[in-house]
């Protein structure tokens, strides 16, 4: 074979040339979000994680709004209307910095905004979506409860009619952005089944309590929502949302972002380990030159590239309108597990240095413990896949 026919050696940072297959527009969006993340997020994220919060969360929301990532896959009302792949790439670049930052964006866009966009009245869309897209208003999504996680149908939050009004009582738990939100999309059981409501957070009877002492997703604001006799007008109900399928469809949108985000977290850990192994000298040479370290790096590069291929294929399916919710379950199940393996291995390569915030690996590792259980636990997604391939439901 002549030299001109020889393939170029693989790029250690894109071994299977996954990103090389992106369109020009997709690559431009990736680079824009990556540059923003490197400039505005990465220098601060270790301090935010250490502090257990995002000190200037409202200012960050406006920065995300200017970047155009809030609801970027939605059409109209100030949203960018990008492809699913472009949105996924944005999630990947954000989670390569920290899972909490991707969660900030996906809860705003794929849960709160998507619920309003899909199920809201024209008045609700016009009131909230442009401000949320710009980051001037923040939303949260209240589905999970202290005793209703994987089984949201057992929720205890109730909405009852009182004349033309609705009155809501209940507690929601583990709600991202809850303490800084202007509006909460709250799901409640009614005499007619599960319904969604837009609850202004300054409504009498509504309280958001920030959850402290977390060991994961510390660069994120997580809250408990308490509703005690919150009275809402009839027009606060999302008119298109009937039944539990409505909030679950929103969760599927957010899970899609996790498929890409986990690939970003895994990539960040792999790249940190590759750099560290190449510069850390022991026994007279870089540890990258030892067989056991090279085996670890080989396992990591396979996991990272498999995750990127999975995310891209599901994104392409989504853009063709051919993405089933089981495809998203496949992606979350596979990519989170891959990212967890990569993070654990990267931490071992870093040795004692791996437990400090000077390096990103343990921060990603503990964040992924949350990513593995929120928006569908690993077990629930395994059962979804099992049902998909056998035709037999094993949930109950």
What key attributes describe this structure?
Butyryl-CoA Dehydrogenase, subunit A, domain 3; globular; alpha+beta; three-stranded mixed β-sheet; 15% strand; 11 strands; Butyryl-CoA Dehydrogenase, subunit A, domain 2; 396 residues; four-stranded antiparallel β-sheet
Please provide a written account of the structure.
α4 packs antiparallel against α5, α4 runs antiparallel to α6 (245-279) and α6 (245-279) runs antiparallel to α9 (361-371). The protein has three domains: 19-133, Butyryl-Coa Dehydrogenase, subunit A, domain 1, CATH 1.10.540.10; 139-236, Butyryl-CoA Dehydrogenase, subunit A, domain 2; 245-390, Butyryl-CoA Dehydrogenase, subunit A, domain 3, CATH 1.20.140. The protein contains ten helices and eleven strands. The chain is of the alpha+beta class. The strands form four sheets. The protein has a four-stranded antiparallel beta sheet with strand order 4-5-9-8, covered by helices on one side. Strands 3-6-7 form a three-stranded mixed beta sheet. It has a two-stranded antiparallel ribbon with strand order 1-2. Its cofactor is FAD. It catalyses: glutaryl-CoA + oxidized [electron-transfer flavoprotein] + 2 H(+) = (2E)-butenoyl-CoA + reduced [electron-transfer flavoprotein] + CO2. InterPro entries: Acyl-CoA_DH_CS, Acyl-CoA_Oxase/DH_mid-dom, Acyl-CoA_Oxase/DH_mid-dom_sf, AcylCo_DH-like_C, AcylCo_DH/oxidase_C, AcylCoA_DH/ox_N, AcylCoA_DH/ox_N_sf, AcylCoA_DH/oxidase_NM_dom_sf. Its EC number is 1.3.8.6.
């Amino acid at each position: 074979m002549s030299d001109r026919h020889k393939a170029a050696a693989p790029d250690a940072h894109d071994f299977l040339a996954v990103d090389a297959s992106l369109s020009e527009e997709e690559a431009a969006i990736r680079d824009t979000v990556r540059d923003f993340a490197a400039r505005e997020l990465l220098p601060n994220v270790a301090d935010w994680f250490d502090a257990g919060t995002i000190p200037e969360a409202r200012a960050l929301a406006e920065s995300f709004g200017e970047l155009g990532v809030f609801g970027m896959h939605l059409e109209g009302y100030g949203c960018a209307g990008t492809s699913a792949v472009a949105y996924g790439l944005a999630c990947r670049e954000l989670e390569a910095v920290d899972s909490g930052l991707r969660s900030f964006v996906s809860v705003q866009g794929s849960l709160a905004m998507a619920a309003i966009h899909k199920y809201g009245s024209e008045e609700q869309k016009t009131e909230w979506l442009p401000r949320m897209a710009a980051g001037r208003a923040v939303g949260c999504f209240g589905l999970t409860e202290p005793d209703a996680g994987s089984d949201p149908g057992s929720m205890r939050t109730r909405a009852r009619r009182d004349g033309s009004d609705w009155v809501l009582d209940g507690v929601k738990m583990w709600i991202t952005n809850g303490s800084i939100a202007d509006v909460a999309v709250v799901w409640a059981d009614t005499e007619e089944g599960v319904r969604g409501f837009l609850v202004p957070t300054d409504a009498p009877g509504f309280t958001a309590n920030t959850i402290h002492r977390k060991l994961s997703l510390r660069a994120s604001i997580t809250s408990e929502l308490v509703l005690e006799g919150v009275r809402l007008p009839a027009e606060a109900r999302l008119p298109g949302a009937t039944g539990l399928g409505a909030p679950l469809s929103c969760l599927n949108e957010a899970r899609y972002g996790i498929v890409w985000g986990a690939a970003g977290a895994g990539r960040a850990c792999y790249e940190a380990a590759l750099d560290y192994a190449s510069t850390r000298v022991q026994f007279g040479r870089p540890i990258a030159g030892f067989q056991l370290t090279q085996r670890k790096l080989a396992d990591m590069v396979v996991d990272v590239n498999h995750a990127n291929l999975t995310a891209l294929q599901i994104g392409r399916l989504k853009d063709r309108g051919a993405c089933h919710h089981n495809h998203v379950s496949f992606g979350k199940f596979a990519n989170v597990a891959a990212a967890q393996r990569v993070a654990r291995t990267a931490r071992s390569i870093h040795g004692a240095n791996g437990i400090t915030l000077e390096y990103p690996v343990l921060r990603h590792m503990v964040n992924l413990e949350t990513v593995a259980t929120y928006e569908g636990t690993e077990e629930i997604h395994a059962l979804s896949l099992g049902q998909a391939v056998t035709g037999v439901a094993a949930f109950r």
